[in-house]
């Protein structure tokens, strides 16, 4: 008999499932990997075999231009990994295709959440609470100061800014995978049916979302605009890196906005020269993290990928066993 849970081993570059010799979201290339979702800090290229949801594989194919060794696993389908271990992909509510991964071995159940959120998102399947013995949670926004307002409020601010600046455009910085499509889908849900203009770096991912059934309405490339004037009174979406670079000079008097959970921190908005901070995050905020741990109610919580200390302390105060994992190589491509 081996010790409980000795089959799952956190290493600095990922979580190793020993009897199956497979890694979850490894930060370096390995022979076999399970990948929770397509953000670059989780989905590296170059693995021998990658097991992920069909949407995550499509995102990786788009980004790395290869489909070699891809094995698709649908939500809810149990995949035998060898060594008596099985994996089941469960929606994580983070971005299209994002998953928690339930690993089962010798009657023990471990869930690795990847990144997740509990707030509604029209562009992906919602997080499903699933019982387990060990719950390995992210903690990107693991401080009580981080509370994300309802997205409707933030979308309302964006539409108000647009109404108040009919001769300008509102330039929204948003990550190309997930955030951009969520902002667009929420604008559509709020009744905004005008053309939304895109930076070229957004185009392929928006098309991929549409191919996976997420309607985004009338999108056009800024590079195809007949004139600056065509974009007056419009909303333009670009990667955060484009907000202050030469590219934005082709826009009519842009008001700079940014959609990110970090916009809760005023200094961050100021640093980036953001005039209209929009607190829109694809991660669980403090309340979602603590409520999710309470709902899942595991024997043990392992905390990774962010601000571990405060959540560790919260677990202790609520009599929950917990430990912090020191994984490296996870940065916020997404927030
Ligand atoms: Zn992510
Ligand atoms: Zn991440």
In short:
The protein is of the alpha/beta class and 335 residues long.
Summarize the structure in words:
- With about 325 residues, this protein is an alpha/beta fold.
- The relative contact order is 0.15.
- The strands form 3 sheets. Strands 7-8-9-10-11-18-19 form a 7-stranded mixed β-sheet, covered by helices on one side. A 6-stranded mixed β-sheet has the order 1-2-3-4-5-6.
- The chain has 2 domains: about 10-145 and about 285-325, Ribonuclease Z/Hydroxyacylglutathione hydrolase-like (Metallo-beta-lactamase, Chain A); about 150-280, Rossmann fold.
- The protein is about 20% helix and about 25% strand.
- Helix 1 links the parallel strand 5 (about 50) and strand 6.
- It starts with 7 loop residues before the first strand and ends in an 11-residue tail after the last strand.
- It is globular.
- Bound molecules: zinc ion (2 copies).
- One zinc ion binds near residues 37, 94, 115 and 334.
């Amino acid at each position: 008999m081996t010790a409980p849970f000795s089959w799952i081993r956190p290493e600095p570059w990922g979580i190793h499932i020993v009897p199956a010799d497979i890694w979850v979201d490894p930060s370096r290339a390995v022979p076999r990997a399970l990948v929770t979702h397509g953000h670059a800090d989780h989905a590296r290229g170059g693995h021998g075999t990658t097991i992920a949801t069909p949407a995550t594989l499509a995102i990786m194919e788009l980004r790395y231009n290869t489909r070699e060794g891809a094995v698709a696993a649908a939500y809810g389908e149990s995949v035998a990994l060898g060594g008596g271990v099985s994996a089941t992909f469960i929606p994580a509510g983070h971005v299209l295709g994002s998953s928690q991964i339930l690993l089962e071995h010798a009657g023990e159940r471990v869930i690795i959440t990847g990144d997740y959120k509990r707030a509604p998102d029209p562009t992906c399947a919602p997080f499903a609470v699933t019982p387990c013995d060990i719950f390995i949670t992210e903690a990107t926004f693991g401080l009580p100061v981080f509370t994300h307002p309802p997205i409707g409020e933030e979308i309302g601010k964006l539409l108000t800014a647009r109404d108040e600046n009919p001769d300008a455009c509102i330039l929204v910085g948003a990550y190309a995978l997930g955030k951009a499509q969520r902002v667009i889908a929420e604008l559509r849900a709020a009744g905004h049916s005008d053309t939304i203009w895109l930076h070229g770096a957004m185009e392929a991912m928006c098309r991929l979302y549409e191919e996976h059934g997420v309607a985004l309405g009338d999108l056009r490339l800024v590079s195809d605009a007949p004139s600056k004037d065509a974009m007056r009174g419009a909303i333009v979406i670009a990667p955060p890196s484009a907000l202050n670079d030469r590219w934005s000079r082709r826009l009519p008097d842009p008001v700079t906005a940014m959609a990110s959970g970090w916009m809760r921190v005023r200094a961050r908005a100021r640093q980036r020269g953001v005039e209209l901070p929009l607190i829109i995050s694809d991660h669980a905020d403090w309340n979602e993290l603590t409520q999710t741990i309470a709902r899942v109610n595991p024997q043990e919580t392992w905390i990774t990928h962010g601000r571990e200390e405060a959540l560790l302390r919260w677990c202790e105060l609520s009599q929950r066993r917990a430990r912090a994992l020191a994984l490296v190589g996870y940065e916020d491509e997404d927030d």
